[in-house]
Amino acid sequence: SLFGINRGSSGINAEYGEGNEEGDESGSEADDVDIKTNIDISEEKKEKVKVWRPGVDALEEDEELDYDPSVYDLMHELDVEWPCLSFQILRDNLGPNRTRFPHTVYLAAGTQADVAKNNKIMIMKISELHKTKHYDSDEESSDDEKEDKEESEDEDDIDADPILEHKSVNHNGGVNRIRSMPQEPGILSTWSETGKVHIWNVTPLIAALDFPPENKIPPTQPLHTFSKHTNEGFALDWSPLTRGRLASGDIDGNIFVHEIEQFSPENLPYRGHTGSVEDIQWSYTEDGVFASCSSDQTIRIWDLRNKQGAAITVNAHTSDVNVISWNPKVEYLLVSGGDDGAIRIWDLRSFRPGGFVAEFTYLKGPVTSVEWNPNDESQIVVGSADNQVTIWDMSLEPDEEGNELAEETGVEDAPPQLFFQHLGQEDVKECHWHSQIPGLVVSTAANGFNIFKSFNT
Fold it and tell me: What is the pLDDT of residues 386-402, one digit of tens each?
């Protein structure tokens, strides 16, 4: 299903937590974070909707995209003082497979401020994320929807305000990328625009969001800083199999593997790319194996046991390969996204030039983020520079009902695998699934964060 969204139809300011760390502010509307629920029941449209297509349809000066709350179980906006190029959903102790509303989400994000000294790592706890879906009338709702509505009214108040609490850490330089160690979520790595990779322990700050300490937390300093890169970079990933193993790649084509238990990288980089290393992904099943992609249009597979070069090199796109994601449930599937706007699925058992098993060219701008759904092996969330966050489902096939719906809504050119289309953000940079809340997606863009769950995920 494909739907448009109207950003900012109404706003509800969140309550704020207390006691933010080192230079952080709280408790006023002038703070650096603001959260909204994107709902305005009174202005809900009754007529049939048409899907607006980025790069195809134009908006007149007096027109805006219409937000349809019936296609979202949950939709909230989060505004921040400075844009965040990168963020990570932090694994928490609230349990897996959470479906009961309201939800709580923990995030770590890095800012892109006006000057280097104003940048921060932000640790956020967003709670009381209530269901925002509602129905036009009982006549238009199915029996299942009526039952869901009654249960929602009993258990959840859609008008309740989300609650945002946050701490911050000063960070020298803009944060190009931030990642959390899978084995210990409070250990973060950041790629700074200054050309350095920092390691941080923010565990005390996360704990303080749940249980405010009696004494002020001392300013957080990096546990270690790696300075062997010759330039800044964006590629950064922790191994899901080996605790403390981190790979980082820079725009000069160098890849270093760091073992943070020893706090020292290997002396020599892994070299082979002739352009900027844009992304790195470790294998979920093969210890010591990782993939990288580059502006040299290639994807390479590396084995730590061989520093002479990549084990496999494939010319993957017709332009820069910006992002890759390794399927955590199907070990041989890799997805890539490029500056050419193409999404390509690769079977690593037959990894060769032109050997992608699926390709989608529906998007009208460079792909900036891709990620397999950790709870559904067939789904991918994609962020792109045409201001879209799209969900794709590889298990879907053409059917008559779907074709009719596509024709009614004006998107007959959309592939059947295009499962959901989320609009309203500007210059989307990253989007991630919440591994513990099935179907929940968080995305970051120039105008802040969106937290949403579509009705069909």
Answer: 999 999 999 998 776 66
